[in-house]
């Protein structure tokens, strides 16, 4: 029986070796089709990706991604929807262009 | 022991009855005046003697923060079973119903979530044939 609680902690901090980081999976799902509620994100991560994260943990991931500008939220009606925002990524590559590394 | 009644809190009982009967297609079962409100229940025409859904007035002060928090995070308060979620999604969106989650394949079932216009989110589910719903 693997140590579930330590796996969960590792996932929260993106340190899990056997599973992709939950934050990455959140961005994958939002990039695939935008505008999801916390409920939908939680079901997708649990059912499609088998992540045993609590709603609170996923909410924390979303908070980190939102503070980094990679996720933006919008209230439609009475529900809050999350969207992927790639703008900070293009800003990074614009400021620090990716160049081929040459081993010399 | 059987589950014979469950409830959703509704902002306005008459508007809720109109939505649950005319839009969703349930049947009014009981409408018993109780003070300013009614003991108002609907049943599915597919199981007229099955569980009743009570459309309960949302007047208690605890109801609003409870429902606002759930709806804010997109969490449904009740679940109705249908044969075909895609068909219901098409039928209901044509009637102006707003979905917070389109039909989504979750493996053993297809689900979708809509706003019942009375303050709640409702999940539709169609289990796939052979899927074990007994877990």
What would you note in describing this structure?
The complex is a heterodimer of chains A (104) and B (135). Helices cover 50% and strands 12% of the residues of chain A. With 104 residues, chain A is mainly alpha-helical. The radius of gyration of chain A is 16 Å and the shape is globular. Chain A has a two-stranded antiparallel sheet with strand order 1-2. Chain A has helices spanning 4-12, 22-32, 38-47, 55-67, 87-95; strands at 71-76, 79-84. The longest helix of chain B has 11 residues, at 13-23. Chain B has a four-stranded mixed beta sheet, with helices on one face. A four-stranded mixed beta sheet of chain B has the order 5-8-7-6, covered by helices on one side. Chain B has helices spanning 13-23, 63-72, 85-94; strands at residues 5-10, 27-34, 37-43, 52-57, 78-81, 99-105, 109-115, 121-127. Chain B has 135 residues and is α/β, with parallel strands linked by helices. The chains are: A mainly alpha (104), B alpha/beta (135). The A-B interface holds A 36-40, 43-44, 47-48, 55, 77-81 and B 68, 71-76, 98, 100-101, 104, 106-107, 111, 113, 115, 121.
List the quaternary state of the chains.
heterodimer
Largest sheet composition of chain A: 2 strands, antiparallel
Taking the sheet with the most strands of chain B, its summary is: 4 strands, mixed
Rg over C-alpha atoms of chain B, rounded to the nearest angstrom: 15 Å
Query: Shape of chain A from CA axes?
Result: globular
SSE order of chain A: HHHHEEH
SS class of chain A = mainly alpha
Query: Quick one: how many beta strands of chain A?
Result: 2
Strand content of chain A: 5-15%
Q: What fraction of residues of chain B sit in β-strands?
A: 35-45%
Number of strands of chain B: 8
Span between N and C termini of chain B? 19 Å
N/C terminus separation of chain A: 47 Å
Note the overall shape of chain B.
globular
Mean pLDDT of chain B: 94
Strands ordered across the widest β-sheet of chain A: 1-2
């Amino acid at each position: 029986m693997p140590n579930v609680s330590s796996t969960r902690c590792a996932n929260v901090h993106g340190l899990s070796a056997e599973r992709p980081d939950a934050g990455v999976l959140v961005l994958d799902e939002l990039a695939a089709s935008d505008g999801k509620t916390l409920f939908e994100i939680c079901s997708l991560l649990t059912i499609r990706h088998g992540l045993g994260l609590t709603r609170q943990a996923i909410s924390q991931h979303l908070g980190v991604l939102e503070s980094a500008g990679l996720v933006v939220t919008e209230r439609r009606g009475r529900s809050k929807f999350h969207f992927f925002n790639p703008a900070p990524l293009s800003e990074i590559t614009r400021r620090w262009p990716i160049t081929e590394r040459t081993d010399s | 022991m059987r589950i014979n009644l469950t409830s959703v809190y509704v902002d306005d009982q008459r508007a809720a009855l109109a939505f649950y009967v005319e839009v969703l297609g349930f049947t009014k079962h009981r409408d018993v005046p109780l003070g300013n409100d009614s003991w108002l229940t609907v049943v599915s025409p597919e199981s007229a003697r099955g569980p009743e859904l009570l459309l309960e007035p949302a007047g208690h002060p605890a109801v609003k923060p409870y429902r606002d928090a759930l709806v804010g995070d997109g969490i449904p308060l009740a679940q109705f079973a249908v044969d075909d979620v895609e068909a219901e999604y098409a039928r209901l969106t044509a009637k102006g119903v707003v979905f917070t989650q389109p039909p989504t394949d979750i493996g053993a079932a297809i689900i979708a979530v809509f706003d019942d216009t009375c303050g709640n989110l409702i999940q539709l589910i169609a289990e796939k044939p052979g899927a074990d719903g007994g877990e």
